[in-house]
Design goal:
41% of the residues lie in helices and 23% in strands. The chain is an alpha+beta fold and 255 residues long. A six-stranded antiparallel β-sheet has the order 1-6-5-4-3-2, covered by helices on one side. The radius of gyration is 25 Å and the shape is globular. It starts with a helix and ends with a helix. The C terminus is likely disordered.
């Protein structure tokens, strides 16, 4: 009996185990390949243009000229059942140490950002001009490149993707960089309905960063930005008319 057991546990058994492992590895590889193909062909196009119509995706947008040949671009949109005047105050106060980003604060705080998205419009955060900075992290400012009240906010930065420090592309050897824009466009559909379109464009060096953008940045960016857009929508649709009125009065007084 012992000899029989040894024969059953001999080279033949090892060969079967090796074949089983190979079958499992092959199955896992096929599953991963199918999953990647489905993501690339179906999920990725959907998340890159979540909520946006073909004209919104294909048309030129303010700020596109700042990144004329993008290696990465997203255009997303959402309809908000509120007037442009109710949406704009929430948009203009976004930022680190401002109103937050109305997204998953707990995820941002895992990186030590200490962000707390506000649930009210702060009149002190309603003044913003071209050339001002909006922080997205303690040492990562985005410059206000264009601003048209109740219509448009374009933020721009060229940063080192490894340490988030600002990079001057005018230098002879600027090193690794991510040159990108973040554009928010408000379009009035009617007096009580607004279309929010958000476009991101970016180009970067070195080119080998592409797999990191594809596998890491794109999914995280979609997760956070989608929540942010829904956060703006929720807040604007629940906005308090009396506060909106106060902001309009302050603007008329130049405050």
């Amino acid at each position: 009996m012992s000899q029989l057991r040894q024969r059953n546990q001999g080279p033949g058994r090892n060969t079967r185990m090796a074949k089983n492992r190979n079958v499992l590895l092959l199955a896992a590889g096929v599953a991963a390949g199918v999953g990647l193909a489905l993501y690339h062909l179906l999920v990725r196009p959907w998340q890159l243009r979540w909520g946006a119509t073909p004209p919104e995706v294909d048309g030129d947008r303010p700020g596109d000229n700042l990144v004329p040949s993008p290696m990465y671009e997203t255009t997303r949109a959402v309809t908000i059942r509120a007037s442009v005047a109710k949406v704009w105050p929430w948009l203009i106060q976004i930022g680190y140490q401002r109103g937050g980003f109305y997204s998953y604060d707990w995820l941002e705080n895992l990186a030590g950002l200490e962000i707390s998205s506000t649930g009210h419009v702060d009149p002190e955060l309603q003044r913003l001009d071209v050339g001002d900075s909006v922080l997205i992290a303690p040492e990562t400012p985005l410059t206000v490149a264009r601003l048209e009240p109740n219509q448009l906010l374009v933020l721009h930065n060229t940063m080192n993707p490894f340490n988030a420090q600002t990079v001057d592309l005018g230098e002879p050897e600027p090193g690794p960089y991510l040159n990108w824009t973040w554009a928010f466009i408000l379009r009035e559909l009617d007096k009580s309905t607004t279309r929010l379109v958000v476009r991101v464009r970016g180009s970067y060096e070195p080119r080998w960063l592409a797999p990191l953008f594809y596998a890491l940045l794109e999914p995280v960016h979609f997760l956070m930005e989608r929540k942010m857009m829904l956060g703006i929508k929720e807040r604007a649709e629940k906005g308090k008319p009396e506060l909106e009125g106060k902001i309009e009065v302050d603007r008329e007084r130049g405050l």
